Amino acid sequence: MDLSTQTAPTEALAQPGASARQRPPVIELENLTVRLGKREVLRNISCSLRGRTIGLLGPNGAGKSTLINTLLGFWPVTAGAAHVFGSDIRTDTKKIRAQIGYMPENDAFISKMSAVSFIRLMAELSGLPPTTALERAHEALFYVGLGEARYRKLGTYSLGMKQLAKLAQAIAHGPKLLILDEPTNGLDPPARQRMIRLVKEMRDSGEMHIVLCSHLLRDVEETCEEVVILKDGQVVHYSNLEEERRSNLRFLELELQDHSDNFRTAIENLGCECAPAPGNRLKVILAENVGVEDVYRIAAEQNVQLRRLNFRRDTLEDIFLKAMENGNGRL
Amino acid sequence: MAVYKRTYRGYSGALMPTWSRFLVLYRFARRTMFRSKFQTAFFVLCFFFPLLCLLGIYANAHLSAFSFLGRQSGPFLKIDGSFFIVYMSVQSSLAFLLTAFLGPGLVSPDLANGALTLYLCRPLSRTEYVLGKMAVLVITLSWITWVPGLVLFFTQASMESGWLGAHTALATGILVGSFLWILVLSLLSLALSAWVKWRIIAGALLLAIFFMGAGFGQAINAVLQTHQGYLLDIARLITIVEQYFFRDGSTQPFSVTEASIALLAFAACCLMLLMRKVRPNEVIE
Fold first, then answer.
1. Residues of chain A found within 8 Å of residue B112, distances taken between Cβ atoms
2. Residue range A11-63, pLDDT digits in tens
3. Which end of chain A is more exposed for a tag (fewer CB within 10 A), N or C?
4. Nearest to residue A39, comparing CAs of A63, A74, A65?
5. What SS3 class is residue A247?
6. What ipTM did this prediction achieve?
7. Minimal Cα distance from B13: which residue of A?
8. Which residue of A has its CA nearest to B12?
């Protein structure tokens, strides 16, 4: 069969070095509403996601999987609009799917097929010529660590191996956007570490954007630049973790042996903002040209003993718990 | 990328045309089918009768070659509608059995462990998926029904001058009869494969629908003193269509139009059942 002149789209991918704000949007949602049966699962969601790795968080039933399924064109859009790499999901479904690799949460394999045949089939369905598909199926399996088991039937794989096989089929055709739905589900700690390492490697390769949907905050925190938290079908929090990590480096929480006004004044004289807190603690926002070493130097000069110095940083867990709080402060 | 490097790299090479993706399903299913020695042997066996017919047609036209056997009279075979009715009956039965072996294993493995989601998250629509799976049966059954049928038809036409002009309707009958039979068998077996997880039970159900449908239809006719029961007899409906083209004089309970409409309605029901199952996800309302 003749090969068409069609080639895999590359223009959608952003420059690896560019910051999230400078990149073109990967996913854009404008008042997106999705109704399944009588239930409105997604309600007026609007956001523009540009990060190389985007975390999708939320409790069960928040609408994470529905959002992914809608982006893949499985569910129809009831109202609003959604774009992936600038293409409308209502009209350009095939174009979008050609650029996506999807690793579903649930089992997805043909038990009597060998891993290499299955992944070759999937790569061919994504448009790769047969020879290339076979070559990339082998490569993908070696990459995820199933090289030695690639001729085994998928039905004989362990849960961890099945997860890796699902990852292999999602990346075999070289997608520009990889959607991972609970990739570490059911994995033991070493297997989880391996999965996270693979995600980080793919992120750092600059070849693709990744959407990671997970209940495990640690997975998202380790790998993602941006986080969207969903609750009851709505976006309750958006956070650019990369920027927060940078800004958090300017916040310090100090605990002193004894209260010292002189120390506080000296710190303020450097241009920093200070606020006393209970228990001989001091909250400091460092000025532009001031580093932690300056704080240590002043403490030495003032003969003040620092008992503890923390970068005051909201963990993703803090952010998530705040997002999940009701108006009355309860979860 | 060399395997030993084990680093990720994207793909920016050539892609196959989008329209051709459904043929990937056909290629993989065909490979699976011929991996079974039994199915391969049965497929080969299906060519035995057409070959016998071909020899008969050849011998019929070259009787002088058999003069050493002491035969002096005219042609021993009359190649007309009756000949092709027998041919179609035998080949349709073999096609039915081949479908019972192949059909049930086509969709159920994709549904059993959720692989369908992976098919449909690619640039492949539900229609293309069904087309790809149908192509397996349509192409395979074509090889044993209308393709050898037309070979026989044109062989006879080439051996007897004036025969072609008088029997053109036979070619139409072979094509229409085969296509209807293939369409009904393919859609029914795919629908059964989608709804019944176990291959053997799906195969048995296929047999049951044909044989029990005919029996049930007879019972309705006997109890209600009507002919409408024949609507449940798929094989009889197809025979009505074939006999119209083969100019068989026997009387039938329905006209060819009624039989065709009944068959198409049956095929539409099977397609509807199939499409209900071919979904990437179930909606829980």
1. 110-111
2. 445 454 555 566 788 999 999 999 988 889 999 999 999 889 999 998 888 89
3. C
4. A63
5. helix
6. 0.86
7. A7
8. A8
